[in-house]
Design goal:
The longest helix is centred in the first third of the chain and has 14 residues. The protein has 119 residues and is mainly beta. It has 1 helix and 9 strands, in the order αβββββββββ.
Length: 119
Amino acid sequence: MRSILKKTCMLAVAFLGLCAGSARAEEVVVNVPFPFVVQQQAMPAGEYVVERVGQGQDALLIRRTKGVGNSAVIVLTTPASGFDPSGDKPALTFTHVENVYRLSTIWESHTEGRTLGRG
Protein backbone atom coordinates (compact mmCIF):
# COMPACT_ATOMS: atom_id res chain seq x y z
CA MET A 1 0.00 0.00 0.00
CA ARG A 2 2.77 2.41 0.92
CA SER A 3 4.66 1.82 -2.31
CA ILE A 4 1.49 2.34 -4.35
CA LEU A 5 0.92 5.76 -2.77
CA LYS A 6 4.54 6.75 -3.26
CA LYS A 7 4.51 5.69 -6.91
CA THR A 8 1.22 7.49 -7.47
CA CYS A 9 2.50 10.76 -6.07
CA MET A 10 5.63 10.63 -8.19
CA LEU A 11 3.60 9.69 -11.28
CA ALA A 12 1.17 12.55 -10.74
CA VAL A 13 3.81 15.25 -10.61
CA ALA A 14 5.25 13.96 -13.88
CA PHE A 15 1.95 14.82 -15.60
CA LEU A 16 1.59 18.33 -14.28
CA GLY A 17 3.19 21.72 -14.04
CA LEU A 18 2.30 24.43 -16.52
CA CYS A 19 2.48 27.99 -15.42
CA ALA A 20 4.19 31.17 -16.51
CA GLY A 21 5.37 33.57 -13.95
CA SER A 22 6.73 34.16 -10.55
CA ALA A 23 7.43 32.06 -7.51
CA ARG A 24 3.95 32.87 -6.22
CA ALA A 25 1.66 32.68 -9.21
CA GLU A 26 -1.80 34.25 -9.11
CA GLU A 27 -3.15 31.21 -10.91
CA VAL A 28 -1.82 27.83 -11.87
CA VAL A 29 -2.88 26.16 -15.14
CA VAL A 30 -2.53 22.38 -15.29
CA ASN A 31 -3.57 19.56 -17.60
CA VAL A 32 -4.76 16.54 -15.64
CA PRO A 33 -4.85 13.49 -17.96
CA PHE A 34 -7.06 11.36 -15.70
CA PRO A 35 -10.31 11.81 -13.75
CA PHE A 36 -9.86 12.68 -10.08
CA VAL A 37 -11.76 13.60 -6.92
CA VAL A 38 -11.58 16.84 -4.97
CA GLN A 39 -13.34 16.67 -1.60
CA GLN A 40 -16.05 14.23 -2.71
CA GLN A 41 -16.58 15.91 -6.11
CA ALA A 42 -15.64 13.95 -9.23
CA MET A 43 -13.66 15.95 -11.76
CA PRO A 44 -13.08 14.72 -15.34
CA ALA A 45 -9.69 14.76 -17.04
CA GLY A 46 -8.87 18.09 -18.64
CA GLU A 47 -7.28 21.50 -18.28
CA TYR A 48 -7.82 23.23 -14.92
CA VAL A 49 -7.05 26.62 -13.42
CA VAL A 50 -6.31 26.88 -9.70
CA GLU A 51 -6.69 30.38 -8.26
CA ARG A 52 -7.07 32.10 -4.92
CA VAL A 53 -10.50 33.11 -3.67
CA GLY A 54 -10.57 36.46 -1.87
CA GLN A 55 -7.65 38.08 -0.07
CA GLY A 56 -6.47 35.09 1.97
CA GLN A 57 -4.48 32.04 0.96
CA ASP A 58 -6.71 29.38 2.48
CA ALA A 59 -9.50 29.18 -0.12
CA LEU A 60 -8.72 28.05 -3.67
CA LEU A 61 -10.98 27.68 -6.70
CA ILE A 62 -10.26 24.71 -8.97
CA ARG A 63 -12.14 25.01 -12.26
CA ARG A 64 -12.10 23.20 -15.59
CA THR A 65 -11.40 25.50 -18.50
CA LYS A 66 -12.03 23.28 -21.53
CA GLY A 67 -14.29 20.41 -22.46
CA VAL A 68 -17.94 19.52 -22.19
CA GLY A 69 -19.48 20.62 -18.91
CA ASN A 70 -17.98 22.92 -16.35
CA SER A 71 -16.50 21.44 -13.21
CA ALA A 72 -15.48 23.69 -10.34
CA VAL A 73 -14.95 23.41 -6.61
CA ILE A 74 -13.76 25.74 -3.86
CA VAL A 75 -11.49 24.07 -1.29
CA LEU A 76 -10.02 25.13 2.03
CA THR A 77 -6.32 24.46 2.40
CA THR A 78 -3.50 24.63 4.93
CA PRO A 79 0.20 25.26 4.32
CA ALA A 80 2.03 22.18 3.01
CA SER A 81 5.22 20.98 4.59
CA GLY A 82 8.19 19.87 2.54
CA PHE A 83 9.11 20.76 -1.01
CA ASP A 84 7.49 20.55 -4.43
CA PRO A 85 8.53 17.16 -5.87
CA SER A 86 8.65 18.61 -9.39
CA GLY A 87 11.16 21.33 -8.50
CA ASP A 88 10.38 24.98 -9.19
CA LYS A 89 7.40 24.35 -11.47
CA PRO A 90 3.86 24.58 -10.07
CA ALA A 91 2.28 21.15 -9.74
CA LEU A 92 -0.54 19.12 -8.25
CA THR A 93 0.01 15.87 -6.38
CA PHE A 94 -2.50 13.07 -5.99
CA THR A 95 -2.97 9.96 -3.92
CA HIS A 96 -4.27 6.82 -5.61
CA VAL A 97 -6.50 4.58 -3.52
CA GLU A 98 -8.85 1.90 -4.88
CA ASN A 99 -8.70 3.14 -8.50
CA VAL A 100 -9.47 6.74 -7.51
CA TYR A 101 -7.05 9.65 -7.76
CA ARG A 102 -7.58 12.26 -5.02
CA LEU A 103 -6.04 15.71 -5.20
CA SER A 104 -3.87 16.11 -2.11
CA THR A 105 -1.49 19.07 -2.58
CA ILE A 106 -1.20 22.15 -4.79
CA TRP A 107 2.36 23.48 -5.21
CA GLU A 108 2.86 27.04 -6.46
CA SER A 109 6.65 26.99 -6.16
CA HIS A 110 9.46 24.85 -4.74
CA THR A 111 8.57 25.76 -1.13
CA GLU A 112 5.04 27.22 -1.36
CA GLY A 113 2.33 24.58 -1.27
CA ARG A 114 -1.19 24.08 0.05
CA THR A 115 -2.62 20.81 1.39
CA LEU A 116 -6.29 20.04 0.95
CA GLY A 117 -8.26 19.04 4.02
CA ARG A 118 -9.99 15.71 4.16
CA GLY A 119 -13.51 15.84 2.87
